[in-house]
Fold:
Amino acid sequence: MCASCGFPAAPGHWTEAGAANAAERLRARFRRAQVLQTVLPAYGLTAYDGALVPGIQISTLSGNQVIARDLAEVWAAAERFTGGPVDPLDPRFIGGEDEGR
Amino acid sequence: MTGNHDGRMRLTVLGGSLGSGKTTWLRHQLHAGHFRDAYVIVNEAAATPVDDALLTRSANLAVLAGGCACCEGKADLIALLRKICDARSRTESRGDRLERIVLETSGLADPGPIVEAIRTDPVLVHHIVVTEIVVAVDALHALMQLRSEPLGRRQIEIADRMVITKVDEAEGATLSRLVATLKSVNPGAMISGTIKGSGVDLPSSDDAEPEILPDLSGETDRPPIFPTRLLIDDTIDWSAFTVWLSALLHARGDDVVRVKGVVRTSAGRLLLQSVRKIVQSPEILPDQNNDAGREDDTIIVIGRGYRADDLRRSLRYFAGVGRA
Structure:
């Protein structure tokens, strides 16, 4: 564990279980970031995971920023920034490709 | 389970309401040689412990009396577990090290917060992995408790394995009805029957109707809970799926009561289970075809307050990101 930043976080957040080796873990991180980068802008947030530093950076349009260790922290941070949870059942995600985006 | 948990100790949580036969079951397990190498922790809500006198067969035994470990006794439990971890870290890893802990909760405990406390503790999470929640279910009184006690129902909901005790004291029809009801409340868990701790066969519950349980959440105007089957095929990758599911549980953890299923990933077949907002560490299942009728690549979401079709469309949207 890095003494300065406390990373890596607790072993095995459940969302990280699907990769068998380091290469797959890296690919999974990029894919995770890709999905987040599509979902979060609808809430005025951006996500960045360069894979060089641990965690996922979540930023607001006004520059507020936090590093989330795992997806649970991503959603908690998003709720804190925007005042409400990111709901996957929001009409913009289920209303078809051309609605709400 | 013999899997390698990166050197962490395995913790079995044993729950169940007061007098449901937890200690009797555990005593028989110890007698039969299971858990013999385990450190047994008995938590009792009352200040004067009794159960430890019954569990003399275990090699290591600690009693936490005077406080239920899911609420007021939580700090004591965490402190004790840290002490155990500390002692284990001082022994050589090649020698005989403690590999298993069994925690018998008090009858008043909700296992959920205990598991959550261990998972979120910065020290314990590196040393302990919760592998199983066993809940003792009283063959005579469980139906009544399910009808009226929210705690009793929470214990059943979170179980990985339900042990129906005192099977000989209930009639066949009552028992079948209980089994059917337990299956409807918690379809993912294994169910077995015991008499004084030793295993017996349960009657078939195929013909029995599960009891329709009243809503205990105090919000009677809420829609009923229903199951939704989601197919996790090749077009849905694990990363997108976890982004979706973690968001769903964060936003709607109070509505999505339970998620369970087996998903194929490059790391193997993962058994995924959640109770409310708590997702257990996915267990990697042996790579063989359908065991015990388990369907691969299917996730069951049990909940309310949404439409089944919306779940599917939303998941498709998340999984379709970046794909032409």
